[in-house]
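Key idea: predict the complex, not the pieces.
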Amino acid sequence: MSGEKFEQVVGVLLDEESEMSLSELCRACGMSAERIMTLVEEGIIEPSRTGAPWRFSGVCVRRVRRVYTLEQDLGVNLAGAALAIELLEEIERLQAHLTRLEERHKG
Amino acid sequence: MEYKDYYKILGLERGADQAEIKRAYRKLARKYHPDVSSEEHGEEHFKEVNEAYEVLKDPEKRAAYDQLGAGYQSGQDFRPPPGWDEGFEFHGGGYTNADPEAFSDFFESLFGRGGFSQTYGGRQRHQYSAQGENTYARIAIDLEDSYRGGTRQITLKHPTLGANGRPQLRERTLNVKIPKGITGGQQIRLAGQGEPGMGSGGPGDLYLEINFNPHALYHTEGKTVFLDLPLAPWEIALGAKIQVPTPDGPVKMTIPANSANGKKLRLKGRGIPARQAGDMVVVLQTVTPPASTDAQREVYRRFGEAFEFNPRKTIGG
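Result:
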Protein backbone atom coordinates (compact mmCIF):
# COMPACT_ATOMS: atom_id res chain seq x y z
CA MET A 1 0.00 0.00 0.00
CA SER A 2 1.46 3.35 -1.17
CA GLY A 3 4.75 1.53 -1.60
CA GLU A 4 5.71 2.29 1.98
CA LYS A 5 7.49 -0.44 3.82
CA PHE A 6 6.22 -1.42 7.20
CA GLU A 7 7.57 -3.90 9.64
CA GLN A 8 6.23 -7.38 8.99
CA VAL A 9 5.29 -9.21 12.16
CA VAL A 10 4.18 -12.74 12.79
CA GLY A 11 2.25 -13.58 15.92
CA VAL A 12 1.37 -16.64 17.92
CA LEU A 13 -2.23 -17.78 17.66
CA LEU A 14 -3.91 -18.20 21.04
CA ASP A 15 -6.55 -20.81 20.29
CA GLU A 16 -8.12 -23.64 22.28
CA GLU A 17 -5.27 -25.98 21.43
CA SER A 18 -2.44 -23.65 22.43
CA GLU A 19 -1.16 -24.06 25.96
CA MET A 20 0.34 -21.69 28.46
CA SER A 21 1.79 -22.12 31.93
CA LEU A 22 0.51 -20.14 34.91
CA SER A 23 3.42 -17.72 34.67
CA GLU A 24 2.89 -17.20 30.94
CA LEU A 25 -0.78 -16.44 31.59
CA CYS A 26 0.17 -13.99 34.36
CA ARG A 27 2.52 -12.20 32.01
CA ALA A 28 -0.01 -12.16 29.19
CA CYS A 29 -2.71 -10.66 31.38
CA GLY A 30 -0.46 -8.43 33.46
CA MET A 31 -1.70 -10.07 36.65
CA SER A 32 -0.32 -11.79 39.71
CA ALA A 33 -0.51 -15.55 40.15
CA GLU A 34 -2.79 -15.01 43.18
CA ARG A 35 -5.30 -13.14 41.01
CA ILE A 36 -5.26 -15.86 38.37
CA MET A 37 -5.74 -18.50 41.07
CA THR A 38 -8.76 -16.58 42.38
CA LEU A 39 -10.24 -16.66 38.88
CA VAL A 40 -9.72 -20.41 38.74
CA GLU A 41 -11.40 -20.81 42.14
CA GLU A 42 -14.36 -18.73 40.88
CA GLY A 43 -14.62 -21.06 37.89
CA ILE A 44 -14.02 -18.23 35.43
CA ILE A 45 -11.15 -20.04 33.77
CA GLU A 46 -10.21 -23.67 34.00
CA PRO A 47 -6.79 -25.18 33.63
CA SER A 48 -6.84 -27.60 30.71
CA ARG A 49 -4.75 -29.98 32.78
CA THR A 50 -5.72 -30.19 36.42
CA GLY A 51 -2.64 -31.99 37.70
CA ALA A 52 0.37 -29.89 38.64
CA PRO A 53 1.70 -27.89 36.93
CA TRP A 54 -1.36 -26.13 35.57
CA ARG A 55 -1.67 -25.56 31.83
CA PHE A 56 -4.13 -23.03 30.40
CA SER A 57 -5.55 -22.75 26.91
CA GLY A 58 -4.69 -19.60 24.97
CA VAL A 59 -8.32 -18.44 24.93
CA CYS A 60 -8.10 -17.81 28.69
CA VAL A 61 -6.22 -14.57 28.04
CA ARG A 62 -9.24 -12.91 26.49
CA ARG A 63 -11.55 -14.09 29.27
CA VAL A 64 -9.27 -12.92 32.04
CA ARG A 65 -8.81 -9.55 30.36
CA ARG A 66 -12.53 -9.12 29.93
CA VAL A 67 -13.26 -9.91 33.58
CA TYR A 68 -10.52 -7.54 34.60
CA THR A 69 -11.70 -4.58 32.51
CA LEU A 70 -15.29 -5.11 33.62
CA GLU A 71 -14.21 -5.07 37.26
CA GLN A 72 -12.08 -1.97 36.75
CA ASP A 73 -14.32 0.04 34.50
CA LEU A 74 -17.77 -0.79 35.80
CA GLY A 75 -17.08 -1.35 39.48
CA VAL A 76 -18.60 -4.85 39.55
CA ASN A 77 -17.10 -7.54 41.76
CA LEU A 78 -15.55 -10.74 40.49
CA ALA A 79 -18.74 -12.81 40.68
CA GLY A 80 -20.63 -10.02 38.90
CA ALA A 81 -18.02 -9.79 36.16
CA ALA A 82 -18.11 -13.58 35.74
CA LEU A 83 -21.88 -13.48 35.40
CA ALA A 84 -21.68 -10.59 32.94
CA ILE A 85 -19.20 -12.51 30.78
CA GLU A 86 -21.35 -15.61 30.68
CA LEU A 87 -24.39 -13.54 29.75
CA LEU A 88 -22.42 -11.65 27.12
CA GLU A 89 -21.24 -14.89 25.56
CA GLU A 90 -24.82 -16.13 25.50
CA ILE A 91 -25.95 -12.88 23.88
CA GLU A 92 -23.21 -13.16 21.26
CA ARG A 93 -24.38 -16.68 20.46
CA LEU A 94 -28.03 -15.66 20.25
CA GLN A 95 -27.21 -12.55 18.25
CA ALA A 96 -25.35 -14.63 15.67
CA HIS A 97 -28.29 -17.02 15.52
CA LEU A 98 -30.78 -14.19 15.14
CA THR A 99 -28.79 -12.53 12.38
CA ARG A 100 -28.78 -15.80 10.53
CA LEU A 101 -32.53 -16.24 10.86
CA GLU A 102 -33.25 -12.66 9.86
CA GLU A 103 -31.13 -12.91 6.76
CA ARG A 104 -32.80 -16.14 5.78
CA HIS A 105 -36.20 -14.46 5.93
CA LYS A 106 -34.97 -11.44 4.06
CA GLY A 107 -33.94 -13.68 1.19
CA MET B 1 -8.89 22.78 20.33
CA GLU B 2 -12.51 22.04 21.01
CA TYR B 3 -14.26 22.81 24.25
CA LYS B 4 -15.86 19.77 25.88
CA ASP B 5 -19.03 20.06 27.88
CA TYR B 6 -18.49 17.35 30.48
CA TYR B 7 -21.91 17.85 31.99
CA LYS B 8 -23.60 17.39 28.65
CA ILE B 9 -21.55 14.25 27.98
CA LEU B 10 -22.90 12.73 31.16
CA GLY B 11 -26.37 14.13 30.50
CA LEU B 12 -26.32 16.27 33.63
CA GLU B 13 -27.17 19.80 34.73
CA ARG B 14 -24.32 21.91 36.01
CA GLY B 15 -25.74 21.76 39.51
CA ALA B 16 -25.64 17.93 39.71
CA ASP B 17 -24.39 16.55 43.03
CA GLN B 18 -21.61 13.98 43.31
CA ALA B 19 -24.06 11.09 43.73
CA GLU B 20 -25.85 12.05 40.52
CA ILE B 21 -22.53 12.29 38.70
CA LYS B 22 -21.52 8.84 39.81
CA ARG B 23 -24.91 7.38 38.90
CA ALA B 24 -24.85 8.95 35.43
CA TYR B 25 -21.30 7.77 34.87
CA ARG B 26 -21.98 4.18 35.91
CA LYS B 27 -25.02 3.99 33.67
CA LEU B 28 -23.21 5.34 30.63
CA ALA B 29 -20.10 3.26 31.31
CA ARG B 30 -22.25 0.12 31.24
CA LYS B 31 -23.95 1.32 28.09
CA TYR B 32 -20.77 2.06 26.17
CA HIS B 33 -18.15 -0.27 27.62
CA PRO B 34 -16.42 -1.86 24.64
CA ASP B 35 -16.74 -5.32 26.18
CA VAL B 36 -20.44 -4.95 26.84
CA SER B 37 -21.75 -2.55 24.27
CA SER B 38 -23.13 -3.31 20.86
CA GLU B 39 -23.61 0.42 20.28
CA GLU B 40 -21.92 1.91 17.31
CA HIS B 41 -18.94 4.06 18.31
CA GLY B 42 -19.31 2.63 21.83
CA GLU B 43 -15.60 2.81 22.48
CA GLU B 44 -15.35 6.51 21.61
CA HIS B 45 -18.32 7.30 23.83
CA PHE B 46 -16.81 5.26 26.61
CA LYS B 47 -13.60 7.26 26.47
CA GLU B 48 -15.50 10.52 26.46
CA VAL B 49 -17.62 9.47 29.41
CA ASN B 50 -14.49 8.43 31.30
CA GLU B 51 -12.86 11.75 30.64
CA ALA B 52 -15.92 13.64 31.82
CA TYR B 53 -16.08 11.56 34.98
CA GLU B 54 -12.39 11.98 35.61
CA VAL B 55 -12.98 15.71 35.92
CA LEU B 56 -16.39 15.86 37.56
CA LYS B 57 -15.82 13.19 40.21
CA ASP B 58 -12.91 15.09 41.68
CA PRO B 59 -14.24 18.20 43.48
CA GLU B 60 -11.03 20.05 42.82
CA LYS B 61 -10.89 19.40 39.07
CA ARG B 62 -14.60 20.02 38.88
CA ALA B 63 -14.32 23.39 40.60
CA ALA B 64 -11.52 24.39 38.25
CA TYR B 65 -13.54 23.27 35.25
CA ASP B 66 -16.65 25.07 36.50
CA GLN B 67 -14.61 28.21 36.82
CA LEU B 68 -14.20 28.31 33.06
CA GLY B 69 -17.86 29.14 33.05
CA ALA B 70 -20.86 27.83 31.19
CA GLY B 71 -20.42 30.25 28.30
CA TYR B 72 -18.82 27.72 25.96
CA GLN B 73 -20.59 25.45 23.52
CA SER B 74 -19.51 21.88 22.99
CA GLY B 75 -17.05 21.75 20.11
CA GLN B 76 -16.39 25.49 20.24
CA ASP B 77 -12.79 26.57 19.69
CA PHE B 78 -11.17 26.90 23.08
CA ARG B 79 -7.97 28.17 24.68
CA PRO B 80 -7.53 28.08 28.41
CA PRO B 81 -7.48 31.63 29.76
CA PRO B 82 -4.08 32.54 31.22
CA GLY B 83 -3.74 31.69 34.87
CA TRP B 84 -7.09 29.93 34.83
CA ASP B 85 -5.87 27.24 37.20
CA GLU B 86 -4.38 29.50 39.85
CA GLY B 87 -4.93 28.14 43.30
CA PHE B 88 -5.66 24.62 42.08
CA GLU B 89 -3.28 21.78 42.63
CA PHE B 90 -4.11 18.66 40.72
CA HIS B 91 -1.25 17.87 38.39
CA GLY B 92 -0.19 14.34 39.03
CA GLY B 93 -2.64 13.63 41.80
CA GLY B 94 -6.01 12.07 42.17
CA TYR B 95 -6.26 10.30 38.84
CA THR B 96 -8.53 7.36 38.40
CA ASN B 97 -7.52 4.26 36.54
CA ALA B 98 -9.11 5.42 33.30
CA ASP B 99 -6.88 5.57 30.28
CA PRO B 100 -5.12 8.92 30.27
CA GLU B 101 -3.89 8.45 26.72
CA ALA B 102 -7.47 8.40 25.58
CA PHE B 103 -8.17 11.84 27.01
CA SER B 104 -8.68 14.72 24.65
CA ASP B 105 -6.35 17.64 23.98
CA PHE B 106 -8.90 19.72 25.80
CA PHE B 107 -8.42 17.66 28.95
CA GLU B 108 -4.68 17.70 28.59
CA SER B 109 -4.51 21.48 28.19
CA LEU B 110 -6.39 21.86 31.46
CA PHE B 111 -5.10 19.10 33.65
CA GLY B 112 -1.94 17.84 32.02
CA ARG B 113 -1.42 14.25 31.17
CA GLY B 114 -1.76 12.50 34.47
CA GLY B 115 -0.57 9.03 35.25
CA PHE B 116 1.39 8.77 32.05
CA SER B 117 2.75 5.31 32.80
CA GLN B 118 -0.72 3.84 33.08
CA THR B 119 -2.38 2.31 30.07
CA TYR B 120 -5.84 1.18 29.21
CA GLY B 121 -6.53 -2.02 31.07
CA GLY B 122 -2.94 -2.36 32.18
CA ARG B 123 -2.97 0.07 35.00
CA GLN B 124 -0.08 -1.18 36.99
CA ARG B 125 2.42 1.56 37.66
CA HIS B 126 5.94 0.54 36.80
CA GLN B 127 8.91 2.57 37.77
CA TYR B 128 12.60 2.53 37.03
CA SER B 129 13.45 -0.63 35.13
CA ALA B 130 10.33 -2.38 34.08
CA GLN B 131 8.93 -4.60 31.39
CA GLY B 132 6.77 -2.56 29.03
CA GLU B 133 3.01 -2.92 29.34
CA ASN B 134 1.14 -5.43 27.27
CA THR B 135 -1.33 -3.75 24.96
CA TYR B 136 -4.61 -5.06 23.63
CA ALA B 137 -6.34 -4.17 20.37
CA ARG B 138 -9.03 -5.52 18.07
CA ILE B 139 -9.22 -5.81 14.31
CA ALA B 140 -11.82 -7.15 11.91
CA ILE B 141 -10.79 -9.42 9.03
CA ASP B 142 -12.63 -11.27 6.28
CA LEU B 143 -13.50 -14.92 6.70
CA GLU B 144 -11.44 -15.65 3.58
CA ASP B 145 -8.33 -14.32 5.39
CA SER B 146 -8.65 -17.14 7.88
CA TYR B 147 -8.83 -19.73 5.08
CA ARG B 148 -5.89 -18.41 3.17
CA GLY B 149 -3.89 -16.64 5.82
CA GLY B 150 -3.03 -13.09 4.90
CA THR B 151 -1.50 -9.87 6.00
CA ARG B 152 -3.31 -6.98 7.60
CA GLN B 153 -2.00 -3.52 8.17
CA ILE B 154 -2.64 -2.02 11.59
CA THR B 155 -1.67 1.33 13.05
CA LEU B 156 -0.77 1.57 16.71
CA LYS B 157 -0.38 4.62 18.87
CA HIS B 158 2.40 4.52 21.40
CA PRO B 159 3.09 7.17 23.99
CA THR B 160 6.76 8.09 24.02
CA LEU B 161 8.74 10.78 25.76
CA GLY B 162 9.53 13.53 23.28
CA ALA B 163 12.73 15.59 23.15
CA ASN B 164 11.16 18.20 25.43
CA GLY B 165 10.46 15.54 28.04
CA ARG B 166 6.73 15.69 27.37
CA PRO B 167 4.82 12.59 26.39
CA GLN B 168 3.80 12.34 22.77
CA LEU B 169 1.83 9.82 20.78
CA ARG B 170 3.85 8.09 18.14
CA GLU B 171 2.12 6.19 15.34
CA ARG B 172 3.49 2.95 14.12
CA THR B 173 2.20 0.79 11.33
CA LEU B 174 2.70 -2.94 11.23
CA ASN B 175 1.92 -5.62 8.69
CA VAL B 176 0.49 -8.43 10.76
CA LYS B 177 0.41 -11.94 9.43
CA ILE B 178 -3.01 -13.50 10.02
CA PRO B 179 -2.55 -17.13 11.02
CA LYS B 180 -4.53 -19.56 8.91
CA GLY B 181 -7.44 -21.11 10.78
CA ILE B 182 -8.08 -18.30 13.25
CA THR B 183 -11.68 -18.04 14.47
CA GLY B 184 -13.66 -15.02 15.63
CA GLY B 185 -12.76 -13.85 19.13
CA GLN B 186 -9.34 -15.46 19.17
CA GLN B 187 -6.21 -13.49 19.87
CA ILE B 188 -2.78 -13.29 18.33
CA ARG B 189 0.17 -12.50 20.54
CA LEU B 190 2.77 -10.29 18.91
CA ALA B 191 5.84 -10.54 21.09
CA GLY B 192 7.62 -7.27 21.81
CA GLN B 193 5.02 -5.08 20.04
CA GLY B 194 3.47 -3.66 23.22
CA GLU B 195 4.60 -0.59 25.11
CA PRO B 196 8.32 0.05 25.28
CA GLY B 197 9.97 -0.96 28.54
CA MET B 198 11.60 1.42 30.97
CA GLY B 199 15.26 1.29 31.87
CA SER B 200 16.56 -2.15 31.00
CA GLY B 201 13.10 -3.69 30.73
CA GLY B 202 12.05 -5.12 27.37
CA PRO B 203 8.88 -4.12 25.55
CA GLY B 204 5.52 -5.69 26.37
CA ASP B 205 3.49 -7.80 23.97
CA LEU B 206 0.58 -6.81 21.78
CA TYR B 207 -2.55 -8.96 21.96
CA LEU B 208 -4.69 -8.60 18.89
CA GLU B 209 -8.27 -9.84 19.04
CA ILE B 210 -9.61 -10.94 15.69
CA ASN B 211 -13.24 -10.73 14.63
CA PHE B 212 -14.84 -11.39 11.26
CA ASN B 213 -16.53 -8.78 9.11
CA PRO B 214 -20.11 -9.78 8.30
CA HIS B 215 -20.14 -11.93 5.17
CA ALA B 216 -22.75 -11.92 2.42
CA LEU B 217 -22.92 -15.73 2.26
CA TYR B 218 -21.53 -17.29 5.39
CA HIS B 219 -21.96 -17.16 9.14
CA THR B 220 -19.58 -18.66 11.61
CA GLU B 221 -19.96 -20.23 15.01
CA GLY B 222 -16.51 -21.05 16.31
CA LYS B 223 -14.90 -23.19 13.61
CA THR B 224 -18.19 -24.08 11.94
CA VAL B 225 -19.19 -22.16 8.84
CA PHE B 226 -22.87 -21.98 7.86
CA LEU B 227 -24.31 -21.42 4.40
CA ASP B 228 -27.99 -21.12 3.46
CA LEU B 229 -28.45 -22.97 0.17
CA PRO B 230 -31.53 -21.98 -1.86
CA LEU B 231 -33.15 -24.88 -3.75
CA ALA B 232 -36.08 -25.15 -6.15
CA PRO B 233 -38.96 -27.36 -4.98
CA TRP B 234 -38.13 -29.99 -7.61
CA GLU B 235 -34.47 -30.06 -6.57
CA ILE B 236 -35.31 -30.68 -2.94
CA ALA B 237 -37.96 -33.30 -3.85
CA LEU B 238 -36.11 -35.20 -6.56
CA GLY B 239 -32.59 -34.73 -5.27
CA ALA B 240 -29.90 -32.93 -7.20
CA LYS B 241 -26.20 -32.53 -7.74
CA ILE B 242 -25.42 -28.91 -6.99
CA GLN B 243 -22.39 -26.69 -7.05
CA VAL B 244 -22.04 -25.10 -3.62
CA PRO B 245 -19.74 -22.17 -2.79
CA THR B 246 -17.32 -22.53 0.11
CA PRO B 247 -14.77 -19.93 1.24
CA ASP B 248 -12.22 -22.33 -0.22
CA GLY B 249 -13.86 -22.49 -3.65
CA PRO B 250 -16.93 -24.31 -5.00
CA VAL B 251 -17.61 -27.99 -4.32
CA LYS B 252 -20.11 -30.46 -5.80
CA MET B 253 -22.74 -31.64 -3.39
CA THR B 254 -25.46 -34.25 -3.64
CA ILE B 255 -28.86 -33.27 -2.28
CA PRO B 256 -30.71 -36.47 -1.34
CA ALA B 257 -34.25 -36.86 -2.72
CA ASN B 258 -37.08 -35.79 -0.38
CA SER B 259 -34.88 -33.66 1.86
CA ALA B 260 -36.82 -31.53 4.30
CA ASN B 261 -36.65 -27.78 4.11
CA GLY B 262 -34.14 -26.58 6.74
CA LYS B 263 -32.21 -29.86 6.66
CA LYS B 264 -28.54 -29.45 7.47
CA LEU B 265 -25.91 -31.19 5.38
CA ARG B 266 -22.38 -31.31 6.73
CA LEU B 267 -19.28 -30.85 4.62
CA LYS B 268 -16.60 -32.38 6.77
CA GLY B 269 -13.45 -30.33 7.22
CA ARG B 270 -14.68 -27.48 4.98
CA GLY B 271 -15.12 -25.09 7.91
CA ILE B 272 -12.36 -22.93 9.28
CA PRO B 273 -9.02 -24.69 8.74
CA ALA B 274 -7.96 -24.64 12.41
CA ARG B 275 -5.53 -27.24 13.72
CA GLN B 276 -8.62 -29.45 13.93
CA ALA B 277 -10.50 -28.20 10.89
CA GLY B 278 -14.11 -27.19 11.43
CA ASP B 279 -17.04 -28.39 9.32
CA MET B 280 -19.20 -26.45 6.94
CA VAL B 281 -22.94 -26.78 7.44
CA VAL B 282 -25.21 -26.24 4.46
CA VAL B 283 -28.81 -25.42 5.38
CA LEU B 284 -31.33 -26.31 2.66
CA GLN B 285 -33.85 -23.57 1.88
CA THR B 286 -36.67 -24.17 -0.55
CA VAL B 287 -37.56 -21.21 -2.73
CA THR B 288 -40.77 -21.26 -4.75
CA PRO B 289 -40.77 -19.39 -8.05
CA PRO B 290 -43.78 -17.14 -8.75
CA ALA B 291 -46.12 -18.28 -11.54
CA SER B 292 -46.13 -15.47 -14.07
CA THR B 293 -47.07 -17.10 -17.41
CA ASP B 294 -50.07 -19.26 -18.34
CA ALA B 295 -47.80 -22.25 -18.81
CA GLN B 296 -46.35 -21.78 -15.34
CA ARG B 297 -49.79 -21.37 -13.75
CA GLU B 298 -50.87 -24.57 -15.49
CA VAL B 299 -47.91 -26.45 -14.04
CA TYR B 300 -48.78 -25.25 -10.52
CA ARG B 301 -52.40 -26.33 -11.04
CA ARG B 302 -51.31 -29.80 -12.17
CA PHE B 303 -48.87 -29.85 -9.27
CA GLY B 304 -51.77 -29.30 -6.84
CA GLU B 305 -53.87 -32.00 -8.49
CA ALA B 306 -51.09 -34.56 -8.29
CA PHE B 307 -50.76 -34.19 -4.52
CA GLU B 308 -53.26 -34.75 -1.81
CA PHE B 309 -51.43 -32.27 0.29
CA ASN B 310 -52.81 -30.03 3.02
CA PRO B 311 -50.02 -27.92 4.52
CA ARG B 312 -52.42 -26.63 7.25
CA LYS B 313 -53.37 -30.05 8.55
CA THR B 314 -51.64 -29.55 11.90
CA ILE B 315 -53.31 -26.18 12.48
CA GLY B 316 -56.81 -27.50 11.70
CA GLY B 317 -57.02 -25.96 8.24
